[in-house]
Known about the structure:
Strand content: under 5%
Structural class: mainly alpha
Distance between the termini: 191 Å
Shape: rod-shaped
Radius of gyration: 59 Å
Number of strands: 2
Largest sheet: 2 strands, antiparallel
Amino acid sequence: MSEQLYDEQPRSTKKKWLGLLLLLISLPVAGYYGVAAWRHATTHVSTDNAYVQADMAQITPRMEGTVTEVLVQENWWVKPGQVLVRLDTRDYEVRLAEAKATLTRARESVDQLFAAVAVADERHRATRSKIQTAQAEIAVVQTEFHQAELDFHRARQLAEEQIIPV
Length: 166
């Protein structure tokens, strides 16, 4: 039995020394990584909700176009109304020329319509004049017809009375 106790004791001491050795090795390693994590945490900002407080201004253009020149650099202070960029004017010049051409065509069309209205008015006046002439001629013919009827009735009456020969 004593032999068995003697054999078991060295194993337990070996385990103790092995555990102590692992503890002595892992303690500096854990300390090194702990200090590195602490330094990183103190020099770097982290957040879970990703909100950053900053003063920013949204810049929106009044018109679209191709930028030819940028007059300011990033993070410069600017004043209200200050020109920030220059745009290519060729696109606008083409649009302006197209608009002027469209306006000229529209004016010519309006002039043609006014001329057509003037011609139509003249034709209307001429037609009205012809109508008035025709109405006057009808009135003259009606008057002549009425006078002829009166003359006929008078002639028949005189013929019946045998004043005039038939």
